[in-house]
Amino acid sequence: MPQDAKKWQELEYVIRQVSRIYNFEEIRTPIFEASELFHRGVGDTSDIVKKETYDFEDRGKRMITLRPEGTASIVRSVIENKLYSTSAQPLKVFYYGPMFRYERPQKGRQRQFHQFGAEAIGLKSALVDSEMIAYATTFLLALKIPNVIVKVNSLGDLPSKEAYITALKDYLRPHVKTLCHDCQRRFDENPLRVLDCKIDKDNPVLHKAPKPLDYLTEADRSHFDEVLANLDEMNIKYFIDKNLVRGLDYYTHTVFELETDLESLGAQSTLGGGGRYNSLSETLDGPKLPAVGFAFGMERLLLAIDGLNKKPDTEYIHAFLIALGSVAKTKALAITEMLRHGGLVVEYDYQDRNLKAQFKQAEKYNPMFYLIYGEDEIKDNVVNVKNAKTGEQDRIPLEELYENLVLKIRQYSTGCSDACDGCEEDC
Ligand code: HAM
Predict the structure, then answer these.
(1) Which of 129, 260, 289, 367 is a plausible cystine mate for 281, CB 3.0–4.6 Å?
(2) 184 part of a folded domain
(3) Nearest CA to ligand 1 atom 30
(4) Cβ distance 128 to 230 under 8 Å?
(5) Global confidence as pTM
(6) How far is CA 248 from CA 40, 304, 354, 388, in A?
(7) How far is CA 305 from the centre of its chain?
(8) Which residues partner with 64 through β-bridges?
(9) What would the pLDDT profile of 303-331 be if each residue is shown by its tens digit?
């Protein structure tokens, strides 16, 4: 619907702005891929591939899958197009678009949903891990989402991860019967996931379970310490969640999630997550390409923004020009064009209506300001500017109208009464 599309555009605008600042370029990959990509990439034993993919046989008897996430497709594309050999290191790309998972639909969880994600491919430096976390937190800051919690953990590289999985299985084996139905299956296929099971979270067996951090090699621990030190340096607050493992098989080293406690999100408080995946490229028969990335659920971001009760700027037009009388109506065309050329969204009445009827028409556009222009204003070479929220009116000389309006719009959007000098608002 048009009113929803505006919110999506606003969100996409912030995605583009923040991605530009961190110098990530957009990449677009197909909506469906060969099923094998996700079986190998995301992992045959992950819940996503095991229970949630939309798989079809096409008319050529090929198995295809609607993409459940973006990372595997992007790595496939980087390998296929040999982007790693031509790009600066790391290759930095972002994407947004529809994803598909056959999950039980509820608030904040759909079967067709949208992700904004980003991947930095080609380097194993801890600086890339911390930059991705900074990029993700800056993005939420730009959306003004409050009370964001950044959870981090490390799984280490494959040898650390494998040593840990063996230790976890040894520990869990005598207790399997106490685990939830899904975790009894996961014990054999994907034991890591048992650790952050939502159903079993109060099971004392899990509280005492060994943690991935205890099985890191010295090199893996120092990579993680470096990531944490970088976050400290950037003043990014985080919380080490020793049970965080994430749901996709490809993770190695750093994993992270971002959540907030806004009520509008219901049970789905996780806005996004990501981590390092140093072996995915090789799993897909590509060269060694260490990488790190994240993805956010866009529907959840919109629920969070809606919960703030702040109208996005795209729900307003900047001004509605009410011209009274045929002379004013003609002269008003030049004023409208002048303001539009300056980038302002301006509407006017296309018919010959009286003041009251024009106000009524104007309200449908939700303007920040009414510009009233009649015989008196023509005589004095001014425009009467009325704030739609406060009702305050000002007669502004025509030659100052544009600059005056730009200032007024800034004050209107931010709620600041001054032009931001020394004010506490983060506008
Ligand atoms: P993920 O944790 O599976 O990670 O998904 C990321 C985000 O997508 C979740 O935190 C959630 O906000 C949203 N999401 C997932 N499933 C649904 C759903 N059914 N309905 C609504 N929102 C959903 C990934 O997908 C990884 N590819 C992230 C990544 C990128 N890791 C490294 N690079």
Answers:
(1) 289
(2) no
(3) 294
(4) no
(5) 0.84
(6) 11, 25, 63, 50
(7) 11
(8) 34, 56
(9) 999 888 777 677 789 999 999 999 999 99
Instruction: Please indicate, yes or no, whether residues 280 and 340 belong to a single structural domain of this protein.
Output: no
Q: For residue 419, is pLDDT > 80?
A: no
294, 394: one domain: no
* Residue nearest to ligand 1 atom 16, measured at CA: 109
Which of 277, 306, 335 lies at the terminal end of a domain, its last residue?
Answer: 306
Tell me: do 326 and 388 sit in the same domain.
yes
CA of 116 to the centre of ligand 1 (A): 9
CA of 115 to the centre of ligand 1 (A): 7
| Six token digits for residue 275 | 């981590």
Residue 175 clears pLDDT 50, i.e. is over it: yes
Pairwise CA distance, residues 343 & 346, whole Å: 9
The whole-angstrom separation of Cα 279 and Cα 282 is 5
The domain in which residue 43 lies consists of: 2-157+217-306
Tell me if the bond preceding 90 is cis, omega within 30° of 0: yes
Nearest CA to ligand 1 atom 20: 109
CB of 297 closer than 6 angstroms to any ligand 1 atom:
yes
Contact 41, 250 (CB under 8 A): yes
CB 238 within 8 A of CB 150: yes
pLDDT at 427: 46
Do the beta carbons of residue 137 and residue 258 sit within 8 Å?
A: yes
Per-residue pLDDT tens for 3-32?
899 899 999 999 999 999 999 999 999 999
User: What own/partner pairs with CB < 8 Å and gap ≥ 24 does 236-241 have?
Assistant: 236/130, 236/133, 236/134, 236/137, 236/150, 237/150, 238/133, 238/150, 238/151, 238/152, 239/149, 239/150, 239/151, 239/152, 240/151, 240/152, 240/153, 240/213, 241/151, 241/152, 241/153
Say whether pLDDT at 425 is over 80: no
| Residue with token string 């600041």 | 416
For residues 402 and 265, state if they share a domain. no
| Same domain, residue pair 299 and 352 | no
Residue nearest to atom 18 of ligand 1 (CA): 109
| pLDDT tens digits for range 357-366 | 999 999 999 9
User: Strand order in 382-387's β-sheet?
Assistant: 346-348, 317-323, 367-373, 382-387, 393-397
